[in-house]
Amino acid sequence: MEINEEKKERRQLLNGDATIWAMVVVLCCISLVEVFSASSRLTFGKSSFLTPIISHTVHLVMGLGLMYVLHLLHYKWYRLFPVLLVPVSIILLGILSVQSASSSGAERWINLGFFQLQPSEVGKIAVIMSVAYWLSKLKTDDELSQSHTFWKIMALTGLVCLLIIGENLSTALLLAGVIFVMMILGGVAWKRILALSGVVAAAGIVALVVLLFVPAQTIRDSRIIPSRATTWQARLQDFFQPGSEGSPTAYEYAKLVAPEKPQETHANIAIATSNILGKGPGNSVERDYLQEASCDFIYAIIIEELGMAGGIVVMLVYVILLFRVGRIATRCKEKYPAYLAMGLGMLIGLQAFINMSVAVGLFPVTGQPLPLISKGGTSVLMTSFCIGMLLGISNTLEKEARGESVLGTETDIPTPIEGEESFDDITES
What we know:
single chain, globular, 16 helices, mainly alpha
């Protein structure tokens, strides 16, 4: 009897999917060790080498706190979040676009004095949450509902992606890809999916041709193409056209290629010198040469220090997370939590895949952090926000299966969208 009471008390402290909680702990532990090791470049010449890791630890603790609060709420409350997040993210992205235009560069952060906020991280989650709600209301056999839902999704996703593209193309493409898959899974008519695929494919081919074959100076002189397009062009040309006459010799690479591609070069060296078990935590050499060792290329440092075994473990953690998210989605009896779980799971999984692929040379260089491992306040908090909602959905399903109440269940949940009296009154089609 006492054992059952103890189990119940533990459930009340940390509810939801226990495996996801375990994977979060693993990722946070790896993050603390590797960010501390990879931050040597950030601390060079500064008064304290502890400053970056203290900042990162604070962000992780805040993220865990946010995760804990969100996982206690009934998932129906999550439908209210986009009402605030969508307009705020659009306004902030608009401000960022103006700042970027005035500085003739690409700005990714807004300085709030006490915090560097990256609006694109907020915007992509706001869009996914909105699309999950709209898809849950979609009547698949109603042409008017199909058209109305499709164009709302296109308008919001297109606007946010357009605002993000100037400062982070990879984030815009990541968001667009997640929304595209959500529409397929959500029952949007195939004729619209195919038409959209054709338009996107045509636009993508034109963009690739321009970036690969149009001279950089012509792109700079253009008033239509974003100023950051020359950076995208250089990265694509480096990836698709590494050498005009076959692979360079080691001497030619060191003399001609390496100085032009310092990040890729040192990431490759980190991986090539890692062996099976690596050099050990804190023994990285390439961290002193990689510009984004604690963020974009943290996976290369992980492999260098923890070896191929450590790299595989990190990869498996994200695979397990995706598997558990899929299990949560399939257990949902309502459409909204299922679509929300799938969208957030795909976002975290694809972002992790892109970051790891860049580190090992499978993708061109992007600015995608490794979720819950890379250093970065906004990224850590927004990933925690996503995982908190996933745990909240799991917690709601588990408690309802046991006949227990969830925080907020007994409260009438208002909705500001389309005039329903309560989210509890929504009938699933």
